[in-house]
Amino acid sequence: MVTLRFSRTHPLRLPAVLTATALAATAALSGCTSTNSGSSGASNGDASLYAPTPLNVTPEKQAENLKKAFLTDAVKAEQLDPTIVQGLNEAGRDYTEAQVKTAAGCMSQPTCKIGDGKLTLAILDGAGSDLWRRITRAQITLQATSYPNIGTVIYLQADGNLQTMQANLKTLIARKVTGIVTYDDFGPAMTAAYQQATNAGIPVVAYGGIPGKDATKAVVSQVASDFCDDGKQMAQTTARMLKNSGNVAFFTGTPGNPQGAGWQACAEKWFQQNAPGIKVVNRSNTSWTESGAVSATTALISTGKKIDAVLYDYAKQTVNIVQTYQKAKLKVPAQVTWTSDNSLLQMWEKDLGTPQEWQLAYSSSINFEGAIALSALMNHLAGKKVAPMLMFPLPFVTAKKGDYLPDQPANAPGPTLMPDSLLTTVLNAG
Fold first, then answer.
1. Nearest Cα to 321, choosing from 347, 339, 303, 342?
2. Could you tell me if residue 159 is left (phi over 0), alpha (psi between -120 and 50 degrees) or otherwise beta?
């Protein structure tokens, strides 16, 4: 079962940010960007300096990319901003063995040469230690190899510390990088720092974790799903699982991160308005670490509260939640989680049809966010208009037998747009 939504108000109405004419699909295939209002470009003369090698994506390949990205074929190119489609197509294009090797080699280096170009791309990450961030970094780095004039990629991450994030951004400004793509774990607290980069002539595009609506002048664009709508969809999925009655716990990563704050507020509001029999009785932060997830779950269990469902925004650590309940010899609550994890699906399938059976719903891995951000950044540098908000749908699917893939590593994140060889390298690196 797929829960597919495009709107805050009605599941069948497309909001303006996702609406595009039939031109969207054509533009995406040719590598063009949206004509939507938004950031004007910043080309310093020759727009070809910021262009990738020709994309030449067939309609069949584009449909394949969309299905991998959203785990359903119900999301169509014409429903999305063309820059989103372009980013997905760039992420899912064919790469040579040499490009894959180059990207893999960059994963252990904060500064990496990927070619002879004069442009420098910076990836600024708020908390880069977990697997999702590493996969996303690899995806962005690989995509950068398709831009002949990007010669250097710099990666800095802040381990969840705001002051380190701000200091890292100042370092990138001092190094006069060409542009920055960033995962913002700190929300509006980073807006002033991004404005400093913009004032210095260095464009910034945020993805995943974003600074929010008040930062539209500080950054070129923000790439994310609609956090509020995500929360509503998580709540609706939970309500169906629990038949509108029960206790739920909310888990997220770093305290105060905009992603968690956004979906949690809207999920709770949806429960209050539509399923008042469901109560939010716990909120926990995990810093998106395994130890954090175990500690939060242990603390929750120690309260003695009956929990019927846990809503979390990272499947990799939903594994730790399930394991902690199992070790305590307690029935595992229903799990509604962002992203996919092969070991989680294995655990779910193992309990299927037994007295220990529990319910699971999940989304795609969403590692494509950074790819969209890079496309938006390069389009802006080429002088093209980029929408200030690039929002995409995040369908949730109900787990079914066969979703677990025994021929894949335990930590495999489900379908991604990157080559299998690069994904395997990242997974094997831990």
1. 347
2. left
SS3 (DSSP) at 253: coil
Query: Residue 291 CB: number of other CB atoms within 10 A?
Result: 11
Q: What is the pTM of this model?
A: 0.83
Q: At a CB cut-off of 8 Å and minimum separation 6, what does 228 contact?
A: 8, 262, 263, 265, 266
| Antiparallel, parallel or unpaired: β 389-392 and 360-362 | unpaired
Distances in Å between the alpha carbon of 208 and those of 135, 188, 272, 389?
A: 13, 14, 27, 12
How many CA atoms are closer than 13 Å to the CA of 298, on its beta-carbon side? 9
Q: How far apart are the first and last CA of the chain?
A: 32
Buried/exposed code over 390-418 (b: 16+ C-beta within 10 A; e: otherwise): bbbbbbbbbbeeebbeeebeebbbbbbbb
Encoding tokens for residue 215?
């930062």
Q: What is the mean pLDDT of each run of 10 residues along the chain (430 residues)?
A: 36 32 37 46 79 95 96 94 98 97 97 97 94 96 98 97 98 98 96 98 96 96 94 95 98 92 97 98 95 98 97 95 98 96 96 97 95 98 98 92 92 93 92
Rg (CA), the chain: 21
SS3 94: coil
**Strands (E) located in 67-187:** 111-113, 119-125, 150-157, 179-183
Q: Kindly give the interhelix angle for 131-144 and 97-106, rounded to the nearest 10 degrees.
A: 130
**In terms of Cα–Cα distance, which of 422, 363, 423, 378 is closest to 87?**
378
Domains within the chain, CATH numbers bracketed: 2-224+367-392+420-428 (3.40.50.2300), 227-362 (3.40.50.2300)
CA atoms within 13 A on the CB side of 395: 18
CA distance 298 to 87: 40
Reported as type and span, the H/E element at residue 334 is: strand 334-337
